[in-house]
Amino acid sequence: DTGVSQNPRHKITKRGQNVTFRCDPISEHNRLYWYRQTLGQGPEFLTYFQNEAQLEKSRLLSDRFSAERPKGSFSTLEIQRTEQGDSAMYLCASSSSIKGGYTFGSGTRLTVV
Amino acid sequence: AQSVTQLGSHVSVSEGALVLLRCNYSSSVPPYLFWYVQYPNQGLQLLLKYTTGATLVKGINGFEAEFKKSETSFHLTKPSAHMSDAAEYFCAVSGGSQGNLIFGKGTKLSVKP
User: Fold this and answer.
1) Do B43 and A107 touch (CB under 8 A)?
2) Is the CB of A102 less than 8 angstroms away from the CB of B46?
3) Contacts of A106 in chain B (CB under 8 A)
4) What are phi and psi of A104, to 5 degrees?
5) For position B48, what pLDDT does the model report?
6) CB A64 within 8 A of CB A81
7) Quick one: pLDDT at residue A94?
8) A95, B101: Cβ pair inside 8 Å?
9) Which residues of chain B lie closer than 8 angstroms to A94, CB-CB?
10) pLDDT tens by residue, B35-89
């Protein structure tokens, strides 16, 4: 068990560019979550997958955001036409609907300049 | 709907003193409650969680929390603070059957020598 892995750890991008983050969950976990954490705030839920199905999306997930989990394993979160307000830590978590557990990755810190 | 309120955005204690971090929740269903710790530029590490059963929950690093339904509280305590406890602490409640978490805004704990 290598934990939840997120790449890259840091990303600096110019406003208007597209960025993509990757999350590799714990292998036996069928649930995967994305959260966003801005400075001085707690994490806020963005979206949730059970296997490859995206079952819930927060209102925070604007049309510029898209998440996929094509084979029910790793997931990607893409932000199109980035804005300065997108600067945040993006956290991924995974869990098992059978065994429980809820493990966070170390996050990807996005800075939009 | 679920919500979490953490009283005190910043708590300062002396090394060896009692740590008390306050968390109150709101939930329309029996809650699952969590405490996480976050060190700078890191992800979230689970300290402890309450699901059902015993209301006094013991976690890692000497922390414990007590679920008090009548007070809708889940305060985190540690008898004797250590310098390494300095970090940000988040209380969270599970929101919905999918297990996405609703977080408080966090309490930053400082430990003075």
Assistant:
1) yes
2) yes
3) 42-43
4) -95, 150
5) 95
6) yes
7) 94
8) no
9) none
10) 999 998 788 999 999 988 889 999 999 999 999 999 999 999 999 999 999 999 9
Smallest Cα distance from B69 to chain A, Å: 23
Over 90: is that where the pLDDT of B28 sits?
no
Of residues A19, A103, A44, A95, the one with CA closest to residue B104: A44
Closest chain A C-alpha to B15 CA, distance in angstroms = 24
For residue A1, pLDDT over 60 is answered with no
In the block, which residue shows the tokens 């510029």? A64
Other beta carbons less than 10 A from residue B22's beta carbon? 17
pLDDT band of residue A85 (cuts 50, 70, 90) is very high
The answer to whether B73 and B39 are in contact (CB under 8 A) is: no
Give the burial class of A3: count Cβ atoms within 10 A of its Cβ; 0-12 exposed, 13-18 middle, 19 or more buried.
Answer: middle
Nearest CA-CA partner of A47 in A34, A36, A65: A34
Contact between A107 and B42 using a beta-carbon 8 Å cutoff: yes
